[in-house]
TrEMBL record:
Keywords: ATP-binding, Nucleotide-binding, Transport. Residues 6-254 form the ABC transporter domain. GO terms for biological process: peptide transport; transmembrane transport. Belongs to the ABC transporter superfamily. One of its GO terms (molecular function) is ATP binding. The keyword Nucleotide-binding applies. It comes from Micromonospora pisi. NCBIfam families: oligo_HPY, PRK11308.1. InterPro entries: AAA+_ATPase, ABC_transp_ATP-bind, ABC_transporter-like_ATP-bd, ABC_transporter-like_CS, Oligopep_ABC_C, P-loop_NTPase. This is Peptide/nickel transport system ATP-binding protein.
Amino acid sequence: MSEPLLRVEGLTKHFPVRGGWRSPARVRAVDGLDFEVRAGETLGLVGESGCGKTTTGRMLVRLLEPSGGRISFEGRDITHARRAALRPLRQDLQIIFQDPYASLNPRHTVGRIVAMPLQVNGIRPVGGVKQRVAELLELVGLNPEHYNRYPHEFSGGQRQRIGIARALALRPKLIVADEPVSALDVSIQAQVINLLRDLQRELGLGFVFIAHDLAVVRHFCQRVAVMYLGKIVELGDREDIYHRPQHPYTRALLSAIPDIGRLGPTGRIRLRGDVPTPLHPPSGCRFRTRCWKARELCATTEPALVPRDGGRQSTACHFPEEGELG
Ligand SMILES: Nc1ncnc2c1ncn2[C@@H]1O[C@H](COP(=O)(O)OP(=O)(O)OP(=O)(O)O)[C@@H](O)[C@H]1O
Ligand code: SF4
Ligand SMILES: [Mg+2]
């Protein structure tokens, strides 16, 4: 098999915060992730608020320095790459942010915003910057004549399209999309997802698509990684994750999706309590304080993320679920 586009090994981010009198405390936001993304592949990264998705996404595009582990892009270790080494990488790896209101400079025209990556990277497209920007605006379904308008003149969905055009300006190989539709009206979420999916297919883009529920990535991602409190608890192909989830947490997330939840043999699973703080994650399995199957072993021994039945689906659980959903 060829080298993956992106390989992540033991990726960790601990944020030091003011602790007790003895030692500074650490928020273990991301705590040892392993996954790969192949060229043109879409990976969904899913989990509840605070599980470390944004922190992971920002490390992948090197907006945040990892505290441990390794990130390789096309076989090259980029974990701690410095500014000069990052320059070519910036073209290949782009991010679309969650909030289309905060991520666009209100004082810049749309033309300037979309052209910015070209200018910063000293790229002069054939036909000129303006023509390239017009092409990009058209590609994302915006009127190229709106080149001189300002972000406030656009709706939320249109602003996110501007963010997408900006991310596409350098013809990247991989895009990290951090909850790209969660700030939008439900009525336009599907439009933006469909646009991303068409672009992904047309341009053969790799995607790490971050979402907080499994419904959003269901029709977009070929593979899905489910995160809980800084860890991946299950990773597999879409078919397996949605039809044969083995981790109790994946089952709980799926049961919250109306049409899947109704079909499941267990019905709706309502998780007890809140997600514990990543300052003091539970011993052993981090999900054990909310898991209905937890036993002694779960508190003493951390379950490794391992493939089950020699298959491609990996699950970090001592007592995985069996059988199909629905
Ligand atoms: N700079 C920081 N300093 C301290 N803690 C941080 C910092 N950034 C993030 N955290 C903490 O790290 C954890 C993971 O945060 P992150 O933003 O990655 O979560 P998320 O999965 O993206 O959540 P959401 O779905 O709400 O966007 C949270 O507990 C958060 O409070
Ligand atoms: S290891 Fe134990 S606590 Fe963790 S998910 Fe599996 S059964 Fe539940
Ligand atoms: Mg986030």
